[in-house]
Amino acid sequence: MDKQQYLTEAYHQLNNQEYYKKLAQPIYPDTVPKIKTILDNLKTKKFINTKQHTYLQGTPPIRPRLFYILPKIHKDPSTWTVPHTIPPGRPIVSDINSESYKTAEYIEHFLTPLSTKHPSYIKDTYHFTTIINNITIPTNAYLFTMDINSLYTNIETPQGLSAVRQSFLKHPNKARPDKELLQLLEINLNYNDFEFNQEHYLQTKGTAMGKKFAPAYANIFMAHWEEGALAKCQNTPLHYYRYLDDIFGIWTHTEQDFAHFTHILNTHSPSITLKAELHTTSVNFLDTTVYKGNKFIDTGKLDIKVYFKDTDTHALLHKTSFHPRHTFKGLVKSQLIRFHRICTQQTDFLTATKTLFKALKHRNYTRSFLRHCLKTFRKQTHHTTDNIIPLITTYSTPNVLINRKLKHNFKTILQQNNYLPDHKIISAHRRNKNLQDYLVHAKIKTNNTPKPKYQTDSFTHIKWFYNADKTHIYPITHRLPPTTKNTVYLIWCNQCQIQYVGETGNQLTTRLTQHRYNITRHKQTHLPIVQHFITHGIRQLRCTIIKHDPSWTTKQRQKQERHWIFTLNTKQPTGLNIK
């Protein structure tokens, strides 16, 4: 995914006015005194002490929140934002060191215990397998799963706050400052502004992934939501369990009843919609497949096995990577432990292991190494960690040698003096910085100005362009040089993204020279494009060819120009065109 693809998907989301609003300037500086007032009240009421009061205000300098996306490459490519080209992104707002970061941590401290106090709660995969192993179901029962669409961003703030308030009332705690917690939560939700590509936005709906309290907040909301939704249903599941936005259940009524049940859930709250699947024999849930196996007819018990998504490449750590030797063995062992804890049948465990080993062979893991890992896994014994003394250093070749010497000398001292006779010394390594740490950043970096090419540093090749609102994407299938004649071209400001559409029968370089002359010499300053780049600077001007046909007449070319001015909405005030 290149930078332009990344920006395309990010703006595709940020221009959805149901969830985000563009700001002229950040508002987080105005939030600081609001938070301080609440913290002062907490200190006055003796809910927090002076040290906690200082901690919750954060450490200056306070930085803006940063928006970024994680591409969902596991989705069906035909459903991508640009099919087979740009995958949808999971929106994240990095909250670290923001003005509300510490208060979000404070809120999470109180919400997390409440988020587990509902009957449908699933902690993790292993908790889910325990639940399944302990239930018995009728022979003709259906298995179903449901997936909630974009839960975090679809929680209406008033309903979310109400759910938390109801949870406080249901589970009273004198040591919990309910009033102040709700005030801080409201600030965290309503003043969640952030920066993206040097532009400022405000999230107007839902909570952001990146807030520490987000999972607990979503869980409390969903517990309140499902309590109300299930109360409306005449026919309910025999078993109903939920892990955040993923639901698993057992259905003992008809398929028609299930369709009606799903309809009730989908209409209970306008912002919450679900996608449901009903099956007679098996369903995929989290990283497991739950199915009616050989023992089901006699016992009514379900079996579980590991579920691998079609897009799972098993791209685990490459064997040639610069890591301690035991890391590779530990990685394989951890996967075998996971398989063993999930699978209820030995054949399923062996099948999952075979799938993993087949993938790891392509990552330079030898067959003998993998066989050894499996053999030692089967013979593993549990060791206590109470009598371990870790020697911790950042991993590097010199530090490995230093650790080895220190361990040897330390052991000798202990043996000679009979200190800590039952203790074992081990080497433990912190991860060193890797390429990702140096190359990947939440903040969008501006490109350095390229060296002049084709007598202009303004021309660039791009794969897509947008309308003024960035709601529609138009691909560019050609790669023409700026010396091309008979073109419709697009100029935009690299700083604010405002656009201008023009046409020329001459080489584009000639037309660009005219534009640059007017801007640098302050000629024809009545034109919006000249006024704009005098203000923002000529170095912010970018240009590309969007349409070209060597056979166009002047009228045909001008007609194309008018079409794209209208399509991209580049007339003032949304653009720089005046005609």
Automatic annotation (TrEMBL):
Residues 135-260 form the Reverse transcriptase domain. Pfam families: GIY-YIG (PF01541), HTH_animal (PF26215), RVT_1 (PF00078). It comes from the Eukaryota. Residues 316-374 form the Helix-turn-helix domain. Residues 486-570 form the GIY-YIG domain. InterPro entries: GIY-YIG_endonuc, GIY-YIG_endonuc_sf, HTH_animal, RT_dom. PANTHER family: REVERSE TRANSCRIPTASE, REVERSE TRANSCRIPTASE DOMAIN-CONTAINING PROTEIN. This is Reverse transcriptase domain-containing protein.
